[in-house]
Each structure stands twice: as C-alpha cells, then as structure tokens.
Amino acid sequence: MVNPIFEDLHAQGLISDKSLENIQKKELGAFFSIHWELKTFLYLGVMMLSTGLGILVYKNIDSISHQAVLGAIGLICIACFAWCYKNKSPFSPEKVESPSSLFDYILLLGTLSFLSFIGYMQFQYEVFGTRYGMATFIPMVFLFWTAYYFDHLGILTMAIANLAIWMGISVTPKNLLRSGDFSNERALYTYLALGLFLLILAYFSRSYNFKKHFSFSYHNYGVHLAFIAIISGYFYYDYLYSLIWLAIFGMLAWFLYQNSFKQRSFYFLMITVLYSYVAISGFALRSLFFMDKSISLLLAFLYLIGSGFCLVVILMDLNKKLKSG
Amino acid sequence: MIIYNKTWLTNLLLIDLVEKEYEADRVSGNEFNNIKAKYPVGFYTPNFFIRVGLFILTFIISQSISGFTVLLLGGSGGYVWLACLGILNYLALQTTVKNKFHYRSGVDDALLWITFIYLAAAYYDLTNAARFDSNLAFATFIFILSLYLTVRFSDLLMSLVAYLSCLGILFFAWQNIGPWGIATMPFTLMLFSALMYWLIRRSLKYSFTMFYANCMVVLQAISLITLYAAGNYFVVKELGDMLNKTSSESIPFGGLFWTWTLIVPLAYIYWGMLKRDTILIRSGLLLCIAAALTFRNYYHVMPLELALILSGTAVLFISWFLTKYLKDPKHGITYQDLSNDSLMDQLKIESLLISETSSGIGGAPSNTGTQMGGGKFGGGGASGGF
C-alpha cells in the first residue's frame, strides 16, 4: 500500500511514473529491521561476559582455579581472533565494510579479553617486570594494530584512550568532562601534546587517504584535548603570561575554523566557535574583574548579553554559509 | 492550538517523507526540488549542531538578562519576580516563534524550558511562602502548565512531563482515599497506563495528532513503561511499604506481581514483533533488564560474576543465532540497517560508547600499574599521580 500522499504528488505531476513505481515496489517488499536491537544485544552480551570474567579473575586471585580462569580468558581471546581472522574481509587502506555486526562485537570481545589477560599477567606475574611503560605500551600497540587491521572504529577509540593512559592521562569522554586533571603544568603540556599529535594524525589519514574514515575520531579527540588544554593553560597562568596561551588558542582556532569549512562539518564548526567564545569571554571577564567589584559585575552581565546576541547572529550566518557553500 | 504555521508544518512533513525517498534514490533530485518549491517551508530550522549552540547561547543570554536586572533593581528573588521572568521569557518565546519563524532552532527550545522552570519555581515558592503544602496541587499545576506548553509547542520532553504529572495527580488523589486507595494503587496505575496507551494508539488515526508525532512516540513508550512498573514486584512492594510506613516480607497477590514482572517484557517483545512495532520491542528489551534486576534483588541464585557470564553468553548466542537465522530475511524481518541514522553516524556514537564503557577493562593494565606504586607511566585513570 502506497502512502496516498505520493499518489497525490503523482496526480499533480510532481513525481514521474517511474518514481511512483519505485516507491510502490519498495513498500511492497518492505522489511522490518531489527538492526539496532541486535546491535544492542551484542553490545550487552559482550559487556556482561567480559565484566563477569574480569570479576571472576580478581575474586579467585589467591586460589588454584585462577589459572583455569586465566586459561579460559586466553582461549576466548584466541577463539575470537581466529574466528574474526577467518571471516574478515581483505585488508585495504580504504574503509572496509564489516561483514556483520556480529563480527564487530566478537572482535571487541576478543580485544577486551586480551586486555584483561595482559592486565592480569602483569598483576600476578609481573611479566613486564617494573617497566610499567611497557605494560601499557604493548596493549596500546596491539589496539592500534587491531583497529587498523580489522577496521574497527570502536577499538580505535579504545586505542586512543590507551595512548593517553600510556602518556599518563585519561581521555574517555566522562573523564574529560570531569577533568580535575588540568591543575598541574605537566598534565597540561601532556594534554596539549596529545591533542596536537591526534590532530596531525587526523590530517595524515585524510590527506594520504589511509583509513580516511578514522580521521574523524582522531580529529574529534584532538580538537577537544587541544582546546581544553589551552583554555586550562590560559587560566592556569598569570594575566600577562597567559596572553601567550590566548595567542596560541587564536592560531589553533583559526586553523580549525578553516578546516571545518573544508570538511563541511557543522559539528567541528560549532565546537570551534563555542570554545573560542569561552576563551574570549574568559579574557574579557578576567580583564573586567580588575575593576571595582560593583561595576565589574554589571559590566560582566552586559558583556554576556551583548556577546551572546552577537554570537547568535554569527552562528545563524555561519549556518547559512556552510549550508550554501 | 499549535503555535507554528500549520501549512508549513504540513509541508514539512511531506518534504521529510519525500526526502527519505530521495536519499534512497527512488525520487530524482529534480522532482525533489520541484516539490520543495511547490510546498514551501518558511521556518528557521538550522543544522542540529547550530541548534545546540543557539540553545546554549539563549540560555546564557536569558540568565544574564535576569542577573543584570536583579542587580539593577536590587530584587531579591521571590515568587513575584520568578513569575515575571517566566512571563517575560514566554513573551520572548512567542515573538521568536511568531515573528522570526523559529522552529526547533535551539532558541525556542531554550526559551520554552526556561519559561517552564521559572513558572514552576514561582508556584513552588508561592506555596512555600503560604505554607500550603500539597503534592496533589503541585502535580496539578505542573500538569496544566506542561500540557499547555505541549499542545502549543509540541515539545517531546514537555509531553513526557505532562504524562508523568498526570500520573502524579492520579497517584496523590488515590492516596488521599485512604487504606483502600493504597491497597488498590498498583491496579489503578496499571489501568491508567493501559488506558493512556490505548488512547494514544487510537488517536494516531486522527489528523490532529499529525503535528505531535514525536510526542506520540514518547508517550507510547512511557505509558508502556509505567504500565509495567505499576505491576513490577519491587515497585509494588517498596511503594506499599513507603505508603503504609511498614517493612513487609511479602505482599498480597505476590504471585500475580511476579508473573507480571517476568512475563510483561517478553509479551511486549512478542507483540511488537507481531505488530512490527519498534516502540514495543525496544520498551520490552529495556524492561527485560528491569525484570532481571528485580529478580536478582530477591533471589540470589548465583554470584554476580557467574550471572553476568551466563547471561552474557546466552545473549551472545541468541544474537549469533538471529544473525544466522536472518541471513536471508524471514517473515519480513531483516537485521540489515535500513535507515540512515545520520546523527548517530556523524558523531560515531557507537565508538564513543565502546571506549567509555570499556575503559574500566581497557584501563586494567594501568590500574595494575597504579597498584604497584605508580611508576613513570603508571598513573592511569583520572587521578594521574605523577
């Protein structure tokens, strides 16, 4: 049964006979998709299984059975990777469509088991001895390799998070939001370095066309890390010294602003504009509060109202520009 | 009724419909453009991300204006002040929608919620000052306010508030009846939810719900959820204890409520599969988790890790079986992705979710590092002890 609206449009001559036929054909053979339900199921299954195994290992740490559990985890890991290796599509520097959602999540299960295996080995037997850098470096390399070899975006983001852990910081979205960690100089520079590094990686995967679709994840993490690090740096230092940070911010923001137009991405445009607004407002408010308190508060409100209205106009303008451009 | 231009809304619905066909290449670009020209939409609706930005900015501007006037006039809060701000925001909302034709632009979304919060706060402050403490009256006020805003602006979250406050009215009114009311509470709430679900499904046939399609989806889901929750063993028992101020070991009709707790989610899924109704299936899946948690709360058949491993394996096997079984679509059901959920895809939500929830496991090696005294690279996690 075809929606009467299309028949109506057809009667008005707005839709050709062929298009109407196309639509009719589609509605006749309409399938009901349980794609997202199945995906959620797989996700839940993998999470429950690996969490359960993780708890089991740590609960049995002093008993004999822990070796059996460890063996089981190792077997699951090998089985998952063997299955994925058998079912994978051949490697290509382009995007490789995954064979099925099942494939993606079996690969995830294998990776998670590998991580708990390594983590447990280090905890119990200290296989990496006291070279703690190695204990995080090897899983990271493994994650990157898996992500590229099997073309898995989820594992790529895990790899990025592990890269950060290796550098001594944490970048999962929740931790970034909570981020109490910008209070010391070293963390600041680490975040900034990682952010810029990721932006460079994003640039290279785009321009050399090597796993181009990975560039979004790199770029996304890179933008947030770099901006947050610079803004925190700006507030960390004294007024005069902090102006250097503002200058760095300006350069990065300008570059990313241009880049978001090149990528035609509303998301990155929005992010850049909002972070810039935070930086500029930070500067304005910090400057205002040199004045007497009673006046500065009034002026601060006036600033927020005025700048807010300006930015609304700017955003609407940018929306038009990017849409048509 | 609805504040937005109805012709434009109708055209928008039509264009959305054609756009789907256009994206699937069933309608040519030329035809699509002609239809767009024939059925113009004059709304200002920016890109989703711009909408988020405008939402934040509108919020900042509105709050700053409030703060500025408070500073200038030296007002001290209070309900008169809150009510004034609420009305002012409402007037601003009406102007942007009526004169600037904003529709889901972020500006109207923000002003709608600011209005609602100010007015609700004004009422709360007024009754507090008057020492008039009635849950029933508060629920009624919220219901009237949110119903008005839903009907006028067709906002989906607002319709959720309206439904829940309506349920609240029934709850508090029934509670006031006395012991008999408390004893029959689960059945009353179940009856109400079922009735609401039935009414919403019926009303989909009429054209007046056309502009409220989003609200109708949310209302179906929430009425299914409250229908289940009203008969869930844990909810019935805890709510009964709270209302009677007792702590019971078991409840009357325990068997009935247990059956309800465990059967209803499965019934939703089955019914949803029969009717091809995504809302029923998804509510059912969600409530399966609730059922499992309720069961575990009272019967500890096995330790947590074993339960997780077993259910995880079972779930994986079911999915594996479904993938095999539906390799070629059967009974008109497929596991292929038919829709193009552009937003999910644009932001790569799935990958973010994986990295967020598996970081506890993914970070395992670093945790061990911290436990061993935190070496050079050992300070993983948020604390990062250098």
From TrEMBL, chain A:
Alphabetized UniProt keyword annotations: Membrane, Transmembrane, Transmembrane helix
InterPro entries: DUF2157
Transmembrane segments annotated in the record for this chain: 41-58, 64-85, 105-123, 129-148, 155-176, 188-206, 218-237, 243-259, 266-289, 295-316
Domain spans labelled DUF2157: 8-152
Name of this protein: Predicted membrane protein
Organism in which the protein naturally occurs: Daejeonella lutea
UniProtKB/TrEMBL annotation, chain B:
Transmembrane keyword on record: yes
Regions crossing the membrane: 48-73, 79-97, 109-126, 132-149, 156-174, 180-199, 211-231, 251-272, 279-298, 304-322
Region Disordered, residue ranges: 365-386
Compositionally skewed regions (Gly residues) per UniProt: 371-386
This protein's record includes keyword Transit peptide: no
Alphabetically ordered keywords of this record: Membrane, Transmembrane, Transmembrane helix
Domain of life: Bacteria
Protein name: Uncharacterized protein
Organism: Daejeonella lutea
